[in-house]
Amino acid sequence: MSRQLLTYPNVRNAKPKEKPYRLKDGDGLFLYVPPSGVQAWQFRYKINGKHQTLTLGKASVMGLAEARRRAEEARSAAADGKHLTTLKRVARAKTAADQSATFEAVAESWMAKRRPTPWSPKHAKQVRASIENHLSQLNGLPVTEINARIVAPILAKVGRSAPLMFEKVQVRLHRILDHGVVLGALERNPLPVPEPEHRKDRRHYPAVTALAELGAILKSARATDPAKGIQRAHTLAAFTAQRITEVVGAKWSEINFDDGVWTIPRTRMKRKDAARGDHQIPLPPVLLRTLKEWKEIDGEDAPLICPAPRDIKKPITPEGVEKYYRDVLGLSGKHSPHSWRAAFSTVARDAGKSDEVIKAQLDHQVGNKTDSAYDRAKRLKLRRTLLKWYEEKLIASREAA
Fold this sequence. Notes:
Blueprint: H1 8-13, E1 21-26, E2 29-33, E3 40-47, E4 50-58, H2 64-79, H3 84-100, H4 103-112, H5 121-134, H6 148-161, H7 166-183, H8 199-202, H9 211-222, H10 228-240, H11 244-247, E5 255-256, E6 261-264, E7 279-282, H12 285-298, E8 307-308, E9 311-315, H13 318-328, H14 339-350, H15 355-361, H16 369-378, H17 380-400
Antiparallel strand pairs: 1-2, 2-3, 3-4, 5-6, 6-7, 8-9
Helix pairs in contact: 4-7, 5-7, 9-17
């Protein structure tokens, strides 16, 4: 290496002239002084016998020692035959890509992409809500920085706070990062492919099915003071045995107080087959009176039966009700809002009630599709009798607890 020529006073005293000039420091490093006076450090080298110049940075922000260090790095790369300007452009492009390809940006692109089967507006809203609720911690991160170690505690929290959402969130996160690969923001997805649970496992929920214990749960819930939407969703799920995802969206317009029937649109049911028709639920007498009291409290303009605490135009979330069961009622791993379906089915079957009537109430298919639609209408009176009997059993167990 040749002797370094420049000193700090040389750099400080280098004044602009009519024409640009360079001050040599040695081994290809120069201080470039243009007429504008904006000095820059340059490294000059050869590739295939041709002179090349790499600008290292402005002298106003890069001192002599730093310029020499950068020049040494460039000198090593040039010795390997690399074109330094090209390397710099690639690095700059990568940095820009990292900054623009944040998780939030890639997630938005994934949600907006065209699919062979477009999402329904309801499903799109649910997907967006799940990402905002459970993955927002990743929003500002470049996708290139996301890895299993960063993701693991976030997914673990989902598993604790919203176990029914865990698999969906995990799969959606993986698909977002797959989309990042398609966009060119990632070379590969850094996360392992989620292992799908067996279908029968997804349907299994721990459930209390003994009447005495069910009464104790109802009595314990009565002693608490949750948000209005949570308390109502709990009551509807317990006494009608409907899925909590179907319960939380209940609207006052769906209740026919004269006939004592709650009609859930087929679009909100788990089974979307239009041929099955809307799901009609006969309301047992005590629940019907309770609904009338709720309606009187809410007034004529209230749209939802189970509103969110801070916005009456939005429903409470299923996760909110599940959290209430876990944290307030202490039922984690024992009983969830969905478990009332198993409780209803078990109590009714143990009492010798009709299996077909029970299935019709749970919106399980009875016979073929045509028979199923017919049976639900035909068995409405039978289901009303069954739910009245079940309501009496639950209330008696609650009072005896």
